[in-house]
Amino acid sequence: MPRLVVAAPASGHGKTTVATGLLAALRHRGLTVSPHKVGPDYIDPGYHALAAGRPGRNLDPWLVGEERIAPLLRHGANVPTPADIAVVEGVMGLHDGAVGRGAYASTAHVARLIDAPVLLVLDTTAQGRSAAALVLGMRAFDLAVRIGGVILNRVGSPRHETLLRDALAEVEVPVLGAVTRAAEVTAPSRHLGLVPVAERAPESRAVVAALADLVESTVDLDAVLDLARTAPPLTVPAWDPAGAVGGPAGTARPVVAVAGGPAFTFSYAETTELLTAAGADVVTVDPLRDPALPAGTRAVVVGGGFPEVHAEALAANAGLRADLAGFDGPVVAECAGLLYLGKALDGVPMCGRLDHTARMTGRLTLGYRDAVAGTDSPVHHAGDPVRGHEFHRTVTDPGHGERPAWRWDGAAHGFVAGRVHASYLHTHWAGHPQATRRLVEAASR
Length: 445
Hints:
single chain, alpha/beta, 7-stranded parallel β-sheet
């Protein structure tokens, strides 16, 4: 399978612009393109999915284990149909990994695991011949990572482009494209990054179309395809959700409602695949619009998103809030779900299923976590080790319950109350599929 990784020396160089534009431009050529994102981020894959016409998927060694990265890539490239090429957008700088863990979970780490060449996006603002030295250093830092080409971004003028191309020719790194500052296309951002696709679908489609035009006019797509074809064959078997969960947990096929819609956009594609493979009937519920839980709901999953942006509309849907407040089946909530299940968010009433309030702060809490389940719950046995990720600007009062969901760094986090498991921790169920089976078994009971 031809494949490549779009990386950069640091955040802000234009990886998402180039990766999304490449996906859309290659699709315009009639190719089936499989989109992937290094790291835990949920928002970029939404733009990837819009550009490629198929789910954007994450490749994060911290969340799922490095042994699953190549199998998950193959799975994503095979579902729903086999892809002609996979484009993987990196995270942060090429060699930036989990804090204190060296290159682990970095873009370079993933490029090695999937044996893919790297296409480096370089912000050339206020830079001339030194750009070649930067690329040379990036290439020499880890010889197991192959930088196969560069796309120059934010080029100031034709003369600037010529200077940059000449410098990179000296270090024998091919330039596969050059994007001028005037031509740059961006999507709007706010407190946690880009605005998700689901919140501005028409505008997002226009941005993706503009990015496709930009890449088609500034990047040598034939050279990009040639670079992707230099990746050797992947011999590992594709990840299989049915194999991961051990098949259906029973014959009952309980209905599991998964929150979606503009307020709850943070979900990995593998979550619903695992739930289905474990024997659940997965139904999406939109807390902004649906007046009640789907008929026959036996379990609820409320993932991440932006309830703080939609608090008034969520509060106005009193019917669904009441349904969730009185629901006695298993409930799993992460981050936004934690806020939604509480009594109030910034003074606006929420479901009241959990006895806490939440508020926005000016502080960003961000990072990988090595967690241990603090309490038996519908998804974990106490003591189960799980790796996850935090990314929020809110706090809850109290910060955890008497029966905490997790413990890490010597502290308790989150809530287990009855059959509810809720916390700020985002997890990827492909990394611990037993949680999926345990949830479906609990729903069946």
